[in-house]
């Protein structure tokens, strides 16, 4: 995993709407909460996404954009986002290249990991949390650290 203080690698991925998301472009305007999750519409991933949704305005008021990444395709992301009214961007990392770039470990060697990074506008990792079984702590922990950056 990347550690606090590491530079966050820049990347580009396709959004659910087919646009290209480039991390460096978003960092010009705000901090980024970059969270990697295993799969759309599974119990833990849905709880995590809905928790980010429910706290989204607080993230925005704290000058942070939330971005979710999984290997699901754009169609899956569109359905997941619409079903749960997610106001933030979901990215498709079908080949796992960004997951590898961010050194997101697999659980039991097979399940894609659940890792959240808070990246400041300078592109520095300010928070890194890895827990497959505590999806809601990704949100609360990130908010705590984000308040210290304000």
Jot down its keywords.
single chain; 150 residues; alpha/beta; Glutaredoxin; seven-stranded mixed β-sheet; 6 helices; 23% strand; globular
Describe the fold and architecture.
With 150 residues, this protein is an alpha/beta fold. It has a single domain, classed as Glutaredoxin (3-Layer(aba) Sandwich), CATH 3.40.30. The chain has six helices and seven strands, in the order ββαβααβαβαββα. Strands 2-1-5-4-3-6-7 form a seven-stranded mixed β-sheet. The longest helix is centred in the C-terminal third of the chain and has 15 residues, at 135-149. The protein is globular. The two termini are 25 Å apart. GO terms for molecular function: thioredoxin peroxidase activity. Its EC number is 1.11.1.24. Residues 2-150 form the Thioredoxin domain. Keywords: Antioxidant, Disulfide bond, Oxidoreductase, Peroxidase, Redox-active center, Thylakoid, Transit peptide.
